[in-house]
Amino acid sequence: MTKAELRQKYKEMRLQLSPGELERLSETIVEMTLTHFQLSEKTISIFLPIERQRELNTYLLWERAMGVGATVAIPKTNFETFEMRHYLFESTDQLEINQKGIPEPKKGKVIAADKFDIVFVPLLAADVKGNRVGYGKGFYDRFLRKCAPNCLFVGLHYFDLEQNIDDVLPTDIRLNAVVMPSQVIRFD
Ligand SMILES: Nc1nc2c(c(=O)[nH]1)N(C=O)[C@@H](CNc1ccc(C(=O)N[C@@H](CCC(=O)O)C(=O)O)cc1)CN2
Ligand SMILES: Nc1ncnc2c1ncn2[C@@H]1O[C@H](COP(=O)(O)OP(=O)(O)OP(=O)(O)O)[C@@H](O)[C@H]1O
């Protein structure tokens, strides 16, 4: 299927999930992440959930990562340049919800892209090769190419993998791993 078809399919699948199921799946994905990835002493990027898109509750991951001594940063989007800049995330007092419904930092210490050990990546769909589909603006494709060569790109996903995405672009950056409620898959 094409990215456009997959966006529609997975948005509908999210709408089938009740608030209770979304919370339970979020908890499971966070537990799977903590089991499979060493976060202590690491510098990590986490996205915060767009609630109207029913994204997973990554506040749980932030709390757990802080608990094991990770340095956590969150992105702020610029919808004119489609670039993101990261800020150290220390308190929910830093946040405001932007027009797209994304909780974003209004202040904080800037963290450069090449400082990250792990970037957790939002997605609507992913395939068995590690290709992903987002909302289609290329924010993560532009950001991930600035990260260090040994940085891990880890998708967080409610559902199973697709066999193929038909219209992968040369600028698309593949994931190294994806965490799903039932399993963690590494692509390399
Ligand atoms: N939590 C989170 N943060 C993220 C992303 C994400 O997927 N999740 N992004 C991943 O790249 C970037 C934001 N990407 C976005 C791109 C387009 C729209 C947008 O046009 N929203 C429309 C509804 C579109 C739709 O339903 O498809 C709107 O709010 O009106 C929102 C976010 C960066 N931050
Ligand atoms: N490094 C880049 N420089 C310029 N344009 C880019 C770059 N990376 C991606 N793009 C463009 O951004 C768009 C990304 O579309 P795509 O459908 O892959 O988005 P997506 O991966 O779903 O979105 P997101 O990364 O925001 O979740 C494409 O038009 C692509 O050409």
TrEMBL record:
Coiled coil, from the record: none
Any GO BP: tetrahydrofolate interconversion
UniProt keyword annotation of Translocase present: no
GO molecular function, a single term: ATP binding
Keyword line: ATP-binding, Ligase, Magnesium, Metal-binding, Nucleotide-binding
Cofactor dependence: Mg(2+)
Binding sites annotated in the UniProt record for substrate: 48, 55
InterPro entries to which the protein is assigned, alphabetical: FTHF_cligase, FTHF_cligase-like_sf, NagB/RpiA_transferase-like
Catalytic activity, EC: 6.3.3.2
Domain of life (superkingdom): Bacteria
Binding site for ATP: 3-7, 132-140
Reactions catalysed according to its record: (6S)-5-formyl-5,6,7,8-tetrahydrofolate + ATP = (6R)-5,10-methenyltetrahydrofolate + ADP + phosphate
Family: Belongs to the 5-formyltetrahydrofolate cyclo-ligase family.
NCBIfam families listed in its UniProt record: MTHFS_bact
Protein name: 5-formyltetrahydrofolate cyclo-ligase
Source organism per UniProt: Fluviicola taffensis (strain DSM 16823 / NCIMB 13979 / RW262)
